[in-house]
Design a protein that fits this description.
alpha+beta; HIT family, subunit A; 5 helices; 33% helix
Length: 170
Amino acid sequence: MDQKNLWAPWRIKYIQDLNKYEDGCFICKAIEDKDKDDENFLLWRTANSVVIFNRFPYNNGHLLIAPNRHIADFNETTEEEMLELTLLIRDCQKALSLAVNPHGFNVGINFGRCAGAGLPGHLHIHVVPRWDGDTSFMSVCSDTDVISQSLTELMEQLRNIGKEHNLPNL
C-alpha cells in the first residue's frame, strides 16, 4: 500500500496546550495577562468581553469572541454581556470585511465537547471569514486548511482598522 503523508507540525502546539493552564482555559489566561495581548493574540478588550485570534484557525481571520467571565453558556450571561457579545460579532464582521474582503462569514458556537467545543468551559463565539471556492482540494481531500497570512500581520491590520473605524463600537 502506498501511504502518503501531509505533515502539519503546527498542530502539536494545539495538542500540547490543551491542558497547559491549571484550569485549562487559554481565554482566561489571556484575559489575566493584560501586558501580553500581542503574545496572546488578543485583538480587543471591552468592558465585559474580549476578541482573540484562534491560533489554529479554519481560515485566515478566524476570531473568537468571549465574555471576560469564565462561563459555559448563554444561560449564565447577563443582559449586558449578551448585548456586548452580539455587538462584537457585528464589529468583527466589519473589521474583517475591510481587512480581508471575505465573501461571507460563518458565525457559530459549540456548547459541550460532544458538540465540538475544544474549550467547553468558556463560552466563545467563532467568527470565520469565508470566500467563494475556499473549500479547495486541500480541505476536501485531506481535511487541511491553508492559511495565507500570519496572525501577527492580520492582528496589526485589524487593530489599525479598529482605531480608524472606532471598533469595537461599544
